[in-house]
Amino acid sequence: MTVIVMLGVGMAAMGGAFFAPITIVHPAMGAEIITVAFVVVIIGGLGSFWGVVLAALLVGVVRGITIHFVPAAGEASIYVLMFLVLLFRPRGLLGERIEKFE
Model confidence over 44-101: pLDDT tens digits? Predict the structure, then answer.
């Protein structure tokens, strides 16, 4: 297990070293992608693969339509969608009910 982790970390370091001369490298790289991925997982429901797939499609369509009509509200639309889904379905779209907590 340790060898696999070391191999993965080494490959990531090598990829970063090869990518650095091509583009600008900074500590906050990928923050935009991670934020959208977090929203997709929350909307889809924790523990639900198909919920995340459905949420990814929904977020992509909502964001694309919003950017087409109101470009300034494109980023905010996914958070409004997350708010609405959590307002009506607190577990997410296809999230499983956890008996221990409810």
Answer: 988 888 989 999 999 999 999 999 999 898 889 999 999 999 999 888 888 776 666 5
What's the CA gap between 47 and 57, in Å, rounded? 17
Looking at the structure of the chain, the number of domains it has is 1
* Total-model pTM: 0.70
The answer as to whether 18 is a domain residue is no
For 43, the domain range is 30-88
Cβ proximity of 94 and 75 under 8 Å:
no
Rounded distance between C-alpha atoms, residue 78 and residue 22, angstroms: 31
Evaluate whether residue 101 is within a structural domain. no
In a domain, 34, yes or no: yes
Q: CA separation (Å) from 80 to 35, 46, 70?
A: 14, 19, 14
| Model confidence pLDDT, tens digit, residues 60-76 | 999 999 999 998 988 89
Let me know if residue 14 belongs to a domain. no
